[in-house]
Amino acid sequence: MRKACLLTALVCTTLFCGTILSQAQAQTASRLDRIKSAGKVRVCIWPDYYSITYRNTRTGALEGIDIELARELAADLGVKVEFVDSSFKTLIADLTEDKCDVSMHGIGITPARQEKLDFSRPHLRSGIYAITTKTNPAVATWADIDKPGIVVAAQAGTYMVDVMKAELKQASLNVVATPEAREQEVMSGRADLFMTDYPYSRKMLARHDWAKLLAPPTPLAPTAYAYAMAKGDRLWRDTVDGFVERAKKDGRLLKAATNNGLEAIVDKD
């Protein structure tokens, strides 16, 4: 009787372990399998990100380095690409709730995001810049920023918020919801400047005559930008990471960067 019980327990344990292993293996391969089966990869983008993932307001067409590279990723996978509107504020939720398979909109790798998401190797690297108005007498150089009475705007969900919380000792920080809100705060005079990165600063200088760029004397918080995925799917993460590696080696990354004026911030490692 005892031997029979032990045998039964052993069989059950083996079956249980086998089931868990099968589930783990299925989970690991499931996203890539699903993408192949569906014939499409769902890519989250932030459509206001100039030179990265930008919806042209005149034509409605999507353009930018990560639009080009998302199409290259889909081509490598042998599937179509489906773009899904997202934002930095909803980045984590959109991935963990399966709104998309990968986020490709120049996502800064931060410790807080790494706790929740997996990342590919970096493809870009940018520091922080400030945009003010040409007519603001209070802010002429970077050294004028952290002074009493100066108001700095930053967009919620971006890494600029945490950096400014740590950097500013005398100036005030105003966290706003959208990039347009940052601009409105500065144009209205409620804020003296807003913080952004290299790609978005290019948009401001190209589109707005009133905009003035302030660069720090040394790079501030240079941050690696990469592609983000929900945690736990090693095969899918390695697939995206392998794509970035190939794009670096075969010139597709540099070509897409050059097409969008971002060759200066390509991560070459």
Automatic annotation (TrEMBL):
PROSITE patterns: SBP_BACTERIAL_3. One of its GO terms (cellular component) is cell envelope. It is found in: Cell envelope. Keywords: Signal. InterPro entries: SBP_3_CS, Solute-binding_3/MltF_N. Residues 40-264 form the Solute-binding protein family 3/N-terminal domain. The keyword Ribosomal protein does not apply. It comes from the Bacteria. Residues 1-26 form the signal peptide. Belongs to the bacterial solute-binding protein 3 family. This is ABC transporter extracellular-binding protein.
